[in-house]
């Protein structure tokens, strides 16, 4: 059973999401919260698999709540999915940096919401190639880092190659084709890189790849 915590300051939206999720045999909404502080308390008490959290809320916003969840070893198994009205913007980028597994726009169709919850519960990032490209575009106009991050020394050459391909928006199957290895081996390289870099998911790998200088932003 996938246990979900809903955190949003709009009761009507929470009710709608709850009604949809509770219809599924493998998903259970364990609690609701109206702000980030209450959501954090419930996350620590209930240890849900997924926290669906609004990015902009009173008291404690979704970014700070995500940051605190990601930093708490007791919540290592909790996956945060950001809810937003605005699509990809600077707030979403900051949430991904803070440790969110991905984000959903609130007008998402029901089938996509259910799929997203199940994907996040497996520990996979909700970061489709189109979203990865938006992350990349965030860096296109940024100056090239003046040095390569020391964290790269922890990675093998193959792990660096895999991370660079993740940053280009490639799926595991595409990375396997590019590296001429099996998809399972590609996934192993990515998972080992995530472990060494203390990254929670692919979203943080993309951010790391650009901020460390492993991948350089291209000119438009």
TrEMBL record:
GO MF, one annotated term: DNA binding
A Pfam family recorded for this sequence: Response_reg
Positions of post-translational 4-aspartylphosphate modification: 54
Record InterPro entries: CheY-like_superfamily, NreC/VraR/RcsB-like_REC, Sig_transdc_resp-reg_C-effctor, Sig_transdc_resp-reg_receiver, Tscrpt_reg_LuxR_C, WalR-like
Keywords, comma-separated and alphabetical: DNA-binding, Phosphoprotein, Transcription, Transcription regulation
Domain Response regulatory: residue ranges: 3-121
HTH luxR-type domain mapped to chain residues: 148-213
Superkingdom, taxonomy of origin: Bacteria
Any single biological process term in GO: regulation of DNA-templated transcription
Name of the featured protein: LuxR family transcriptional regulator
Protein species of origin: Streptomyces dysideae
């Amino acid at each position: 059973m996938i246990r979900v915590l809903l955190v949003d300051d709009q009761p009507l939206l929470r009710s709608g999401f709850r009604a949809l999720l509770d219809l599924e045999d493998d998903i259970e909404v364990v609690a609701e919260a109206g702000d980030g502080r209450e959501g954090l308390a419930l996350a620590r008490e209930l240890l849900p698999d997924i926290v669906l959290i609004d990015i902009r809320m009173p008291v404690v916003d979704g970014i700070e709540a995500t940051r605190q969840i990601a930093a708490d070893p007791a919540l290592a198994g909790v996956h945060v999915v950001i809810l937003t009205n605005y699509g990809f913007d600077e707030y979403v980028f900051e949430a991904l940096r803070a440790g969110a597994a991905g984000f959903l726009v609130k007008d998402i169709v029901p089938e996509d919401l259910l799929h997203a919850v199940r994907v996040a519960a497996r520990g996979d990032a909700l970061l489709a190639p189109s979203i990865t490209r938006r992350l990349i575009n965030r860096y296109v106009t940024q100056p090239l880092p003046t040095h390569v991050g020391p964290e790269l020394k922890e990675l093998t050459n193959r792990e660096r190659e895999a991370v660079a391909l993740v940053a280009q928006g490639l799926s595991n199957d595409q990375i396997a084709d590019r590296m001429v290895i099996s998809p399972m081996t590609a996934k192993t390289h990515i998972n080992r890189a995530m472990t060494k870099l203390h990254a929670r998911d692919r979203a943080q790998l993309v951010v790391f790849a650009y901020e460390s200088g492993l991948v350089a932003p291209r000119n438009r």
